[in-house]
Design brief:
9 strands, Spore Coat Polysaccharide Biosynthesis Protein SpsA, Chain A
Length: 261
C-alpha cells in the first residue's frame, strides 16, 4: 500500500528519450514519498527492457507481453491506483518538480478542476500549441497538407484551432488538453473508466477530455507551470504511424460525430 499523493504513469515502447527522462525524474523526485512512478512497457526489445530494469529500485515497472497501446497501458497503471492525483506522463517529457508542485497547489485549492495541463515547450523554449477547443476534419487536413500557401491562406483558422492566442497571464478553461502531460483527479479518471483503449494511439486524450466535458468536469490550462516535450510528430513522418493516426481519427469522429469544418 502506498501513501503517495501522486501516481506518475508512463507508457513506453522502445521510447528513445526514456532514459534521459528517468534520470531527470530521479534527480527531481527520488526520496519524495509523495510521488510514485509507474512504468508500463508495451513489449519493447529485450535490450530496452534490460536497460529499464536498472531503474526498478526507483520505479514500479510492468513488462507486458504485447503492445496494446497508450490508453491500455495507462489504464493498467491507474485504474486501481489509490493516489489522489494521477499524472499521465509521456516518455519524452522533462519536468522540474517545482512546476508540478504549483499545479498540485491549484488542484488542491479548487475541487472543481478535474484535469490541469501546463504550458508545453520545445527544447528550444518555443511553445507547442497542443490544446484544442474544437476538432474538425478540415483542421486536420490543414495541419497535414504540405502546401505552405494553404497554411498561409488559413493561418487565422489554424491559429484559432491551435489556441495560439490563449492568455499567458491567468488560468483558462479549455475543452481539450494534450495527453503528453495531464494532471488528473484520480476519482474522475476512475469515474470515466480511464482512456477508451479502442484507440491504439492518438485521439484517446481528445476522447477522454470530451468524456470529462460530457459530465460537466472542468479542464484548465495554467501558463504558470511548464514542461519540455521532445515532440517528434511521428504521424507526419512515418507511414505506419500515419495509418494508425487515420484509423484513430475515424474512430473518434464515428463516436463523437463527423464535424467537417
Amino acid at each position: 500500500m502506498t501513501n503517495a499523493k501522486v501516481a506518475i504513469s508512463i507508457v513506453t515502447y522502445n521510447s528513445s528519450h526514456i532514459f534521459d527522462v528517468l534520470e531527470n525524474l530521479k534527480s527531481e523526485f527520488r526520496g519524495d514519498e509523495n510521488f510514485r512512478i509507474i512504468i508500463f512497457d508495451n513489449n519493447s526489445s529485450e535490450e530496452y527492457k534490460n536497460r529499464l530494469k536498472q531503474y526498478e529500485d526507483f520505479v514500479d515497472i510492468t513488462f507486458y507481453h504485447e503492445n496494446n497501446g497508450f490508453g491500455f497501458g495507462h489504464n493498467y497503471n491507474l485504474l486501481n491506483a489509490p493516489e489522489k492525483y494521477f499524472l499521465v506522463f509521456n516518455p519524452d517529457i522533462i519536468l522540474v518538480k517545482q512546476d508540478l508542485l504549483k499545479m498540485l497547489e491549484i488542484m488542491d485549492g479548487d475541487e472543481s478542476i478535474s484535469l490541469l495541463v501546463p504550458k508545453v515547450l520545445n527544447s528550444d523554449g518555443s511553445t507547442q500549441h497542443l490544446m484544442r477547443n474544437r476538432v474538425t476534419v478540415f483542421d486536420y487536413f490543414l495541419r497535414f497538407v504540405p502546401f505552405r500557401f494553404m497554411k498561409k491562406m488559413f493561418d487565422k483558422r489554424l491559429a484559432s484551432y491551435e489556441l495560439r492566442n490563449i492568455p499567458d497571464d491567468r488560468e483558462v478553461d479549455i475543452r481539450i488538453g494534450s495527453g503528453c502531460f495531464m494532471l488528473l483527479r484520480g476519482r474522475d479518471f476512475k469515474e470515466i473508466g480511464g482512456f477508451d483503449d479502442r484507440y491504439f494511439m492518438y485521439f484517446e486524450d481528445y476522447d477522454f477530455c470530451l468524456e470529462l466535458e460530457k459530465r460537466g468536469k472542468r479542464i484548465v490550462y495554467t501558463p504558470f507551470s511548464k514542461v519540455v516535450h521532445y515532440y517528434e510528430r511521428g504521424a507526419h513522418k512515418n507511414k505506419k504511424l500515419f495509418q494508425i493516426f487515420m484509423q484513430s481519427m475515424a474512430k473518434f469522429f464515428n463516436k463523437w460525430g463527423w464535424r467537417w469544418f
